[in-house]
Amino acid sequence: MRILLLGFGTVGQGFAKLISEAGLELLGSYGIRPRIVAVADRGGAAVNLRGLDVEKLLQTKRKAGTVAAYPDHGKPGVSGLKLVEEVPGEVVVEVTPTNIRDGEPGLSHIMAALKAGKHVVTANKGPMALAFQALMELAEYNRVTLRFSGCVGGGTPILDFAGKCLVGDRITSIKGILNGTTNYILTRMTDAKLSFDEALKEAQALGYAEADPAMDVDGWDSACKLVILANWVLERKVRLEDVEVKGIRNITPEEIEDALKRKSHVKLIAYADQDTLRVSPELIPLGHPLCVSGVLNAVCFTSQYAGEETVVGKGAGGAETASAILRDLINIKQAASR
Length: 338
Ligand SMILES: NC(=O)c1ccc[n+]([C@@H]2O[C@H](COP(=O)([O-])OP(=O)(O)OC[C@H]3O[C@@H](n4cnc5c(N)ncnc54)[C@H](OP(=O)(O)O)[C@@H]3O)[C@@H](O)[C@H]2O)c1
Description:
Elements: E1 2-6, H1 10-30, E2 35-41, E3 44-47, H2 54-64, E4 74-76, H3 80-86, E5 91-94, H4 106-115, E6 119-122, H5 125-141, E7 146-147, H6 158-165, E8 171-177, H7 180-191, H8 196-205, H9 214-217, H10 220-232, E9 244-245, H11 253-261, E10 264-272, E11 277-285, E12 296-303, E13 307-314, H12 318-337
Parallel strand pairs: 1-2, 1-5, 5-6, 6-7, 9-11
Antiparallel strand pairs: 2-3, 3-4, 8-10, 8-12, 10-11, 12-13
Helix pairs in contact: 1-12, 3-4, 4-5, 5-10, 7-8
This protein binds NADP nicotinamide-adenine-dinucleotide phosphate.
């Protein structure tokens, strides 16, 4: 399986390490031998149709800051789009930064890959939240597969749980904590009585929050994930602009105290059913399966027959998200051999 890897940051590097470490086991257990034949970052690309050496890629990135400095096979200035169009391969793994304004560069990468007859695995929420239906239709038209498990829940198999474990049932609503950063901030406001600003600073110092925390604290990261869940699980045809979004920036210590008096915690909750699509702070009673702490994510699916089922896990991380990408690759291989 020849792979073109677009983006070589936390997730891209985590994925390269994972397939390099899992090598023989993947062949023995699943009959796949993933080989990275091209990688792109902002500085350019590295291409070797026989396969790039992962250790050398990591070393090059560490020392030179770009994979384009890869010995003998580096291509400074060559874009990810050009790789997709010109380098042969079966799968494009798209892990460039999320952009919710226009989905770029991920949207163009994914569209070009599908048009070129390449399967796509992505953890990039932007293109999926802005153009879910169009991308799925494009994949179907070109008879290739588009998978996106890493977009929701990092390595926690939230989409897989809904798609596979509840097969035969009908999921009627989804309610959950889809963003670990805001959950960390609200947890610290509750447990350590910090103000929002203090908790945010702490989250930034620990690397849980970005220097610009708007995507997380204003609710847009959760909203992107909710749109993906609503399309995939509830079969709704919705986009990011359809979500009613309210973040946690204005939550005060008084509101946190008030929640505690009611034996509840304030959580940033994403909710979807056939009529509603909303992200907003809500009170969750102590002891409820969604009342999880720290950076955890938790999603509760209500279905017609099974009732309420909750999946809990770490919602981000390079290695964790890489494991979701690997699951998607294995699924693509299994679907192709049926
Ligand atoms: N980190 C997580 O825990 C996590 C979890 C779930 C989903 N995700 C999603 O996965 C994606 C990647 O996340 P990350 O944490 O790995 O981000 P990251 O560390 O910022 O890495 C992004 C990579 O994309 C490259 N890039 C940026 N623009 C590009 C372009 N035009 N062409 C080619 N490459 C380009 C960057 O190049 P440079 O290295 O040259 O800057 C970098 O290598 C994001 O969409 C994110 O939302 C991340």
